[in-house]
Here is the input.
Amino acid sequence: MKKVSTTRVQKAIHNLQHLTGTTAEELAPLIGVHARQIHSWVNGRRITERHLKRIYELTERAEYELEGTTPEQRRAHLMESIGRMSIYRRWLADAPRKQRIQYQALSVLERLGGEELNPHETPHEHWEPPQ
Here is the structure.
């Protein structure tokens, strides 16, 4: 992954927020992250190429799709949903989803490759000294 300068990321985020009139909390779902992640990028933490690309994509869409000359007017247009889905909802539908690791719960013995104990036996009956 190529290192991106902090000032470039800060400018990209602030520009998008200015164009859309949104807060980090409103912007985060559009990028597919939590708001605290946006705050950490602004404060110098590394950003993935995928997320930076999404910020640039949203910036381009905001420039062409949103009407108004002030952030407040553009935000109103972004959130407006008279008779149809708002632009914000459409952008949200296109947003990458936060990825969660799927796992199946296993007992400690299963994770270690051991056998389950019979509840009628005592644990020391299965113990063997190391060789």
About this structure: The two ends are 47 Å apart (CA to CA).
